[in-house]
Write a sequence for this structure.
């Protein structure tokens, strides 16, 4: 591999412009070779803003262009399977945003292909990298989690909210609890068949913990919170800013403070987005396993599917 990891970005929308491209452009020994997108004007604006020489309107055209090593995909979920498959078939390492695909079958097919091609394949589940979340997991590394309560509230009745957004906290729960989770019960109240207004789920893990997921899409504001109890310890995580830990008769407050005061840098580090892409580039170089490998990320999608089935909502088929 050349001294610089050559990366392409698939998608030129809001997330690419606010997070992916700014991070990649400031990482050492990373060259952003090209960007793809569906809208020529938007694509050219991104290329001009971030100093990227090549633009393409499709992954097929991208693969016929300048050589590259890895791709970061930040397009809508319906497009992921075709794009990921084409890139893996071409021998490229891939970091794809969540949700990975609309169906479990498509996800499993991509994971199988990545294994066959010996490619790094990870999913953008950034809570695994956010400092307040990592701190909570590290705190229980030598302690047993008895109960994990996660919440994901917003004031937006968006489509398939658990699948598109709540999956972050389902994944965090799985990550900190460990083992295999079984959905014991789940109830949803919907505003429309594909729009969950309120949803709760109880999950039992074979490693011991019980997990509770709570979601309201008619909340007063965005709230993302996790509380872990066990082994005489409680930690309350307010993503992405802070945590409060009660241990051995003391209460300790932690607040993440970035090295740079700028808001953009603050949020990219605080939210774990930068650490996620650093991990991807590191694994491309070393052929290591990322913190959020696609194979394990599929299990978080599978839990979402089980919750939907318990609620009588459309599964991920």
């Amino acid at each position: 591999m050349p001294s610089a990891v050559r990366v392409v970005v698939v998608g030129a929308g809001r997330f690419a412009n606010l997070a992916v491209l700014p991070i990649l452009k400031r990482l050492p020994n990373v060259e952003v070779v090209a960007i793809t997108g569906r809208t020529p004007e938007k694509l050219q604006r991104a290329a001009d803003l971030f100093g990227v020489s090549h633009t393409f309107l499709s992954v097929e055209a991208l693969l016929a262009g300048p050589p590259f090593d890895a791709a970061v995909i930040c397009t809508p979920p319906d497009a992921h399977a075709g794009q990921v498959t084409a890139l893996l078939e071409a021998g490229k390492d891939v970091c794809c945003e969540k949700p990975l695909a609309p169906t479990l079958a498509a996800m499993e097919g991509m994971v199988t292909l990545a294994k066959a091609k010996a490619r790094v394949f990870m999913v953008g589940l950034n809570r695994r990298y956010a400092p307040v979340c990592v701190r909570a997991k590290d705190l229980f590394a030598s302690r047993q989690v008895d109960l994990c309560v996660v919440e994901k509230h917003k004031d937006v009745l968006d489509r398939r909210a658990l699948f598109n957004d709540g999956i972050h906290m389902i994944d965090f729960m799985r990550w900190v609890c460990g083992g295999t989770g079984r959905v014991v019960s789940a109830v949803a109240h919907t505003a429309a068949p594909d729009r969950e207004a309120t949803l709760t789920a109880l999950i039992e893990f074979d490693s011991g913990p019980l997990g509770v997921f709570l979601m309201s899409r008619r909340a007063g504001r965005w709230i993302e919170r996790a509380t872990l109890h066990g082994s005489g310890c409680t930690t309350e995580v307010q993503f992405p800013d802070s945590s409060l830990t009660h241990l051995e008769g003391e209460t300790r407050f932690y607040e993440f403070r970035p090295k740079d005061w700028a808001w953009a840098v603050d949020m990219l580090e605080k939210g774990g987005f930068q650490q996620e892409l650093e991990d991807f580039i590191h694994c491309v170089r070393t052929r290591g396993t990322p913190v959020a490998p696609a194979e394990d990320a599929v299990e978080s999608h599978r839990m979402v599917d089980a919750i939907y089935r318990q609620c009588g909502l459309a599964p991920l088929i």
Q: What stands out?
A: The chain is about 40% helix and 30% strand. The CA atoms of residues 90 and 233 lie 48 Å apart. The radius of gyration is 20 Å. The mean pLDDT is 96.
